[in-house]
Recover the amino acids of this structure.
């Protein structure tokens, strides 16, 4: 690892897999158990809100029962000890980065612990169930939905992410299949800006050939080892 100054990290479901959270595209994963059109689109929610609310209630409960693993904890250490600029972007809607100790996490696909009111557009921290269609604490309408970016909707904070990609010198992708845009295109943005690009994944992802370097194995082993490398090379 060279002495990098500006790092952008993208994480996906693979970093939470060893905490017991289902990934999407593995055999038996979430998208084999449920149709994307039914549970992860605005049209699916309009057709059958109960199905969608129940799906995310189940995932919120699974998240609450899970614990961060050594990969989440290592990224929190990097945030505390890396002397340069660091942006941690996650596609994950769980809170395991935060519970692992990361204070600054950008959730580009939303968060299970947030409710969005379709009526007044306010966001509220949400830990319980939504299936009973509770009232929005701000406007009292029964229009709450999970604050999750569904297919066909714009991921959050893209301007901030692209600005960081344009100036980073290292881009690291951890535990993501590279199947969903715009996140799957971040590696090309970073390369165009001249950054070194590294993938840490259990197996080669769909976009593996786009990276300068690939390290294969479980995130709980790869991420702490990589963080150790970076911190041992980082200058003041
Ligand atoms: P996927 O399920 O598509 O991919 C998970 C990746 O993690 C795969 O490449 C696995 O090989 C890898 N993996 C599994 N276990 C691992 C481990 N222990 N260590 C390291 N890697 C491991 O999940 P995402 O790429 O996160 O979006 O999916 C991207 C988006 O698609 C999600 O945010 C979600 C989904 O549809 C929305 O719902 C909007």
């Amino acid at each position: 690892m060279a002495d990098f100054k500006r790092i952008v990290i993208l994480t996906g479901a693979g970093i939470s897999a060893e905490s017991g959270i289902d990934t999407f595209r593995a055999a038996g994963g979430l998208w084999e158990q449920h149709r994307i059109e039914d549970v992860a689109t605005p049209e699916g929610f309009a057709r059958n809100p109960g199905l969608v609310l129940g799906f995310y209630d189940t995932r919120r409960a699974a998240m609450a029962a899970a614990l961060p693993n050594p990969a989440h904890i290592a990224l929190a250490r990097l945030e505390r000890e890396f002397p340069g600029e660091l942006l941690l972007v996650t596609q994950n809607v769980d809170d395991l980065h935060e519970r692992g100790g990361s204070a600054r996490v950008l959730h580009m696909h939303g968060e299970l612990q947030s409710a969005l009111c379709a009526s007044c557009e306010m966001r509220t921290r949400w830990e319980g169930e939504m299936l009973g269609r509770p009232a929005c604490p701000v406007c009292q309408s029964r229009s709450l939905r999970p604050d999750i970016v569904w297919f066909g909707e714009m991921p959050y904070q893209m301007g901030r992410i692209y600005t960081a990609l344009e100036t980073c010198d290292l881009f690291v992708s951890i535990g993501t299949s590279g199947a969903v845009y715009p996140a799957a295109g971040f590696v090309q943005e970073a390369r165009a800006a001249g950054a070194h690009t590294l993938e840490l994944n259990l197996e080669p992802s769909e976009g593996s050939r786009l990276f300068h370097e690939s390290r294969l194995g479980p995130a709980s082993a790869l991420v702490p080892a990589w963080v150790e490398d970076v911190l041992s090379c980082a200058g003041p």
Observations:
- The chain has a mean pLDDT of 96.
- The longest strand covers residues 110-117.
